[in-house]
Amino acid sequence: MERLWRSLSGLWEIKELRDRILFTLIVLFFYRVGTHIPVPGVNSHALVEYFRQALANTAFGMFDIFAGGALSRAAIFGLGIMPYISASIVIQLLAATVPYFERLQREGEAGRRVLTRYTRWLTVVISAIQAIGITTFLTNLPPSPSGQLIVPNPGPMFVISTVVSLVGGAILLMWMGEQITDRGIGNGASVLIFAGSLESLPNEVISTYTLWKNGAIETPALIFAIIFFIVLTGAVVAVTEVQRRVPISYAKRTVGLSPTTQTGYLPLTVNTAGVMPIIFAQSILLFPQTMLTGGGGRLEFLSGIAAMFQPGTWLYDLTYALLIIFFAYLYTSIMFNPKDVADNLQRSGAFIPGVRAGEETAEYIDRILTRIIFPAAVFFAIVAIVPYHVSKALNIPLYFGGTRLLIIVGVALDLLQKINSYLVMYRYDSLLGKAKVRSWRTTGIG
């Protein structure tokens, strides 16, 4: 513990790290402010009341969680960062399948700038589509349970002002996310979703306590839920940190002596993709949901399709699990290139015992990654789905707890690792680990 506090005290002694943390906190402050600025023409109090009564367990309820409650308040940040994430998914898929985009990705910084520009424009298009869907949804809503009209004066001006406000808010959030990535700590989009996921947590804890105090939740059920989520959190942390250590050796020749061989290992984490598969899967599911639900008031068959994909249905759970597994492999292939690792090993004179350098080493590493990613992805898919059903069965309002848990734990660990890298760089003790960093540095790789 003393070592941890000594490491934490070093945070403020590193100017770059201190500036990045403060910048991230400032951006998050303005993000929270934006989630409370309503678009014109919506009775936000009536909408919040309607969300609590009718939409808590729907796709819109989940969308609202990731938007930090901005959607239920009809705030300018009501679309959240999801349009930007959806656009990023499309561009990354194109970069993996379309030759033109593949070439851009290989062109270094210049190519990445072009891809970023495409991502931004696609974000605007997706934001506009979602804003129109949500505006249609708002105008079709019945009065709140207390009888208040949610949109007192619907009409062309309301539609235009709402769409412009929501699209403008999404563009501003995209810029905020990019600024956090460039000048702050962590991945900007993940940090914004992390902040949004934490927003409603205190209210849910208070709501759970109130229900228990009033006798709506039995004490054994509450105790079981608390133990369940504590154990689940520990399991998520443990699996996230699991590594497959591939032994490596490299020859070191000393003048006048026979060559000596040093050994180390190459750590391959089972969760190389981090929290992004969860976020990507949610983004894919929520985009059509907002469109289907928004148009369902006029087209009955759309309402039927939307109902089939509501959280908790078998079709939703199956689709969600498959998307998590798919994006775990896709994002790992983007973030980790076995060929680059094999080339780095060869250049440093390192090799995997029993495996030829070069192409064979790349294939060997790729086979290991393929094997270790699958069980981890299945585990995270189970964690994302099961807690919802547990909380619902126990009548405890921790809806979507698994998805939120994975995001909160995953982003928190990523932030700690980013901070840890600065501490190691400036010769401070590690926040997360002892041997992990030391052994990686010993290998001379990375």
- Name the beta content range: under 5%
The largest sheet has its strands arranged as: 2-1-3
Quick one: CATH superfamily? SecY subunit domain
Task: Report the helical percentage.
Answer: 55-70%
Write down the CATH topology.
Preprotein translocase SecY subunit
Q: Using the alpha-carbon principal axes, give the shape.
A: globular
CATH architecture label name:
Orthogonal Bundle
Your description of this structure?
By secondary structure, the chain is mainly α. It contains 18 helices and three strands. The chain has one domain: Preprotein translocase SecY subunit, CATH 1.10.3370.10. The protein is 70% helix and 5% strand. The protein has a three-stranded antiparallel sheet with strand order 2-1-3. Strand 1 (243-252) and strand 2 form a beta hairpin.
Give the tags.
446 residues, mainly alpha, Preprotein translocase SecY subunit, three-stranded antiparallel sheet
Describe, in short, the structure shown.
It is built from 18 helices and 3 strands. By secondary structure, the protein is mainly α. A hairpin with a 7-residue loop joins strand 1 and strand 2.
Topology of this protein?
Blueprint: H1 2-9, H2 15-34, H3 44-55, H4 59-66, H5 82-97, H6 99-106, H7 109-140, H8 156-183, H9 188-199, H10 201-213, H11 219-241, E1 243-252, E2 260-269, H12 276-295, H13 300-308, H14 314-335, H15 338-347, E3 350-351, H16 359-393, H17 401-425, H18 435-443
Antiparallel strand pairs: 1-2, 1-3
Helix pairs in contact: 2-8, 5-6, 5-7, 5-12, 6-7, 7-8, 7-12, 8-9, 9-17, 11-16, 11-17, 12-13, 12-14, 14-16, 15-16, 16-17
